[in-house]
Structure formats: structure tokens, C-alpha cells
């Protein structure tokens, strides 16, 4: 059987240590990339725009605000695409550098 080609524009990394905060509720991040996020949650549908906060669970003062457009929600997982900002991109790249042990080369 032939292996399927990866179609994602940006590589997704584990969301270890990150959570999404929406209206005072905490939802664990499943994975994240510079273009979007998947998190555990329900009650959302494709097309919804959500204002949320990404937070480092180890340091709750380490947060960044974001807006996503929900692309899909099934099986208790919500997948959303970010409205990108420089601050958000810096935050995500720093997180990826932390979990991979590589220093991000972007935005120096």
C-alpha cells in the first residue's frame, strides 16, 4: 500500500503543556502549528469564530490572545485556523522550540 502524502501546509507539533482558555474554561491542546490549533472541546461547529487565550500550563502568566475560525469539530476535538499575528507566531515558535529542543530561527 502506498503511503499518503502529507497535505498540511505547516507541520503540527504536540501541544504538550499548552491549554486553550475560552470564557473561563480550560481545554487541553492536542496539537498546534503556526496556522492552527486542535484542542479537546465540544459545542463548536465549522465556521465559528472564537476568541481564545493560549496558555502555558507551567506558567499561567505566559499567555497570548488569538482568534480562530473553526474548520471542524468531531470526536471531542475542535480544529481551528488562526487569524495570525506576530505575537501569536512568536509564542507558537517559542513553544515548538521548547518541546523540540531547537532554538527558533524566526523572529530574532
Description:
The chain is mainly beta and 108 residues long. 14% of the residues lie in helices and 46% in strands. The chain contains 1 helix and 7 strands; from the N terminus they run βββββββα. The protein has one helix at residues 86-100, and strands at 13-14, 18-22, 25-32, 36-40, 49-56, 59-74, 77-82. The chain has a 6-stranded antiparallel barrel. A hairpin with a 2-residue loop joins strand 2 and strand 3. The longest helix has 15 residues, at 86-100. It is globular. The chain starts with 12 loop residues before the first strand and ends in an 8-residue tail after the last helix.
Brief write-up:
The chain is mostly beta strands and 108 residues long. The protein has one helix spanning 86-100, and strands at residues 13-14, 18-22, 25-32, 36-40, 49-56, 59-74, 77-82.
* Strand and helix order: EEEEEEEH
Strand order of the largest sheet: 2-3-4-7-6-5
How many E strands?
A: 7
Shape summary: globular
State mean pLDDT (0 to 100 scale).
Answer: 84
Query: How many individual helices?
Result: 1
Low-confidence spans: 1-6
Strand percentage, roughly?
over 45%
* Overall radius of gyration: 14 Å
> How many strands, what sense, and barrel or not for the largest sheet?
6 strands, antiparallel, barrel
Structural class: mainly beta
Distance between the termini: 43 Å
Question: Helicity, in percent?
Answer: 10-25%
Amino acid at each position: 500500500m502506498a503511503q499518503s502524502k502529507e497535505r498540511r501546509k505547516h507541520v503540527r507539533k504536540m501541544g504538550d503543556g499548552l491549554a486553550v482558555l475560552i470564557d473561563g474554561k480550560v481545554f487541553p491542546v492536542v496539537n498546534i502549528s503556526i496556522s492552527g490549533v486542535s484542542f479537546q472541546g465540544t459545542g463548536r461547529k465549522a465556521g465559528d469564530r472564537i476568541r481564545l487565550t493560549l496558555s502555558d500550563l507551567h506558567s499561567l502568566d505566559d499567555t497570548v490572545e488569538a482568534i480562530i475560525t473553526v474548520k471542524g469539530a468531531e470526536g471531542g476535538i475542535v480544529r481551528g485556523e488562526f487569524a495570525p499575528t506576530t505575537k501569536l507566531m512568536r509564542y507558537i515558535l517559542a513553544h515548538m522550540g521548547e518541546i523540540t529542543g531547537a532554538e527558533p530561527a524566526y523572529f530574532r
